[in-house]
Amino acid sequence: MGTPAHAAVLNVVKRGTKPERLLVSGLLLIIVLLLLRQVFANHLSSDFAYIWTAGKMWALGIDPYGVSYRVFGASALANEAVPAPRGTWVYPPQWIAIALPFGLLPFQTAAWVWRILTAATLCLAIVIAWRASDELDAPPPFWVKALAALAIISGNGAAKLFDNGQTNGLILLGISLVMIGRPRKDLFLCTAGLLLVLLKPQIGIPFSAVALCDRSLRVPTLVAFMLTGLLCLPAFSSIGFDNTLGSLMSLQANLASYAASVFNDPRTLSGVVSIVAYTRFATLPATVYAFAAAVACLSLLWTTQPRTVRETLFFPALLRCEYLFMPLHLNDLLAYPLILLFCVRWRTSSKVALALGLAILYRPQNLTSIILNGVSDRVFEAQIVFAGIVLITIALLIEWWRSKPLSPARLLHDTHHPGPSREAFRTDAA
Q1: Distance (Å, whole) CA 311 – CA 183
Q2: Residue 278: partners with Cβ closer than 8 Å, 6 or more residues away
Q3: Rounded to an integer, what is the distance from CA 371 to the centroid of its chain?
Q4: Per-residue pLDDT tens for 108-154?
Q5: Within 13 Å and on the Cβ side, how many CA atoms surround 369?
Q6: Using an 8 Å Cβ cutoff, are 301 and 420 in contact?
Q7: Does residue 344 contact residue 134 with C-beta atoms inside 8 Å?
Q8: CA angle at residue 71 from 67 to 76, to 5 degrees?
Q9: Residue 336 DSSP one-character state
């Protein structure tokens, strides 16, 4: 069991050598300055305008999934220096718990509060992830934790997070809560984390599908599903329960139009969809990719042995399958640096592939600009990101192969190895 993150940092600051103290102090100062710069910069908050508009409509008893969403947004934001929503509201109804309080505030005040809470969320997520990594069998050294924190705060995902007022900080916090709650079998932490992850179904659905097959997360996942349903009730109540079916049908129509939007061109999204987009299967629904992500992750984990290796690969495999298969925007890849916390015992070849993949995902738009001589190309950038994800996949597969994975025949028929339905994700001490 490792030393708690805050205690390790304080110990280095108080008793470390002068170079160590300078390094730790410098890294912490850089992290703080980066966060302050993001909070106080002049951000457009164009994506937050969607959240604020939906919250204001819910507060007034108007269905944000209806046809009046864009008209209402244009009117409410007419005097603000931010573009009104050009699309439709596609977040699930449980977002009323987050959006409505912001809708009660003037837009600029709400955007300012959102940025402060985003910075606090990032800090909390990083601290929790650090603490979770301290409880691994092979906890990472401080410089690895600091590198992961710097990659999160200064990477492409955080830049878009603050500039546009996006929601991925909540997803990162949810993943960190599950990271620390799972080994502790803490129902509250795991449920809270899964509730946050489910705020984005394109990430939450495959994540929760894997969690349902994990002994430590099965009950928290079911509780999170139940609480998510309960959190949807205020949204239906605000517009009248008799209008619930119409609201859900409008949501379905919004999701269909969202997939057809120019902002969701599959060639510009992450993962295999950017390759499939050039084939006759370009119109595959997101549910197919979610199923593929869950099956790939479960197959890898169920065949990994021993238990200690399987536990080390659990979150890297889950994040890798999410990013490889799910059609996500490039700024959704905020949590990828967390993989660094699990690679202490990986072999050198795995670490090299992982480092190259993470370096590509750090600022893919800069790499695109260098390769294309200053030209910005979202399609080419997506290909660069896919290359980075493939390298991370290679690193993970090297570690999986190193564990001498079980063959399907042994997995199903070997009486000396319990099948996945009973013990595949067993986390009890061996």
Answers
A1: 9
A2: 267
A3: 28
A4: 999 989 988 998 899 899 989 988 998 888 889 888 888 898 899 88
A5: 6
A6: no
A7: no
A8: 135
A9: G
